[in-house]
Design a protein that fits this description.
The chain has 124 residues and is mainly alpha-helical. The protein has one domain (3-123). It is built from four helices and no strands. Helix 1 runs antiparallel to helix 2, helix 1 (8-36) runs antiparallel to helix 4 and helix 3 packs across helix 4. The radius of gyration is 18 Å and the shape is elongated. The protein starts with 7 loop residues before the first helix and ends with a helix.
């Protein structure tokens, strides 16, 4: 059977499998990126971290929307993290520091939400 004559069910299954494969890859790459995020102010770049961010961006672009939504947050590079932390520290408000850390963690939270949405849809 050619793909052009494929049933909607088979097409949906292929899309689900592709989404699952991409989601697993994104989660692996995100875990690698998280381990590279320093806990303090560290300016500079890390070619491995830069590469992981590029891979994350590329895989994310191919992730299909579920219920009209998919993750959009991209991991920050090390200079961006350090600058945001420095700015928040200089602001002197704990809420600014919390917002920076939440921004750093946003891709992981969005992946978890996407996984939940995917699993909920699979069980319907």
């Amino acid at each position: 059977m050619s793909i052009a004559n494929d049933s909607p069910i088979n097409a949906a299954l292929r899309q689900f499998e592709a989404a699952e494969t991409n989601l697993e890859k994104l989660q692996r790459v995100w875990t690698e990126i998280e381990k590279m995020v320093p806990s303090g102010l560290v300016f500079g770049s890390d070619p491995k971290q830069d590469d992981r961010v590029r891979v994350y961006r590329d895989v994310l672009s191919g992730l299909p929307k579920i219920d009209g939504w998919k993750p959009e947050s991209l991991p920050m590079d090390l200079d961006e993290i350090a600058q945001n932390r420095l700015d928040a520290r200089e602001d002197g408000e704990i809420s600014a520091e919390i917002m920076v850390e939440q921004s750093i963690e946003a891709p992981g939270r969005e992946l978890a939400e996407y996984r939940h949405t995917e699993e909920r849809g699979a069980s319907d």
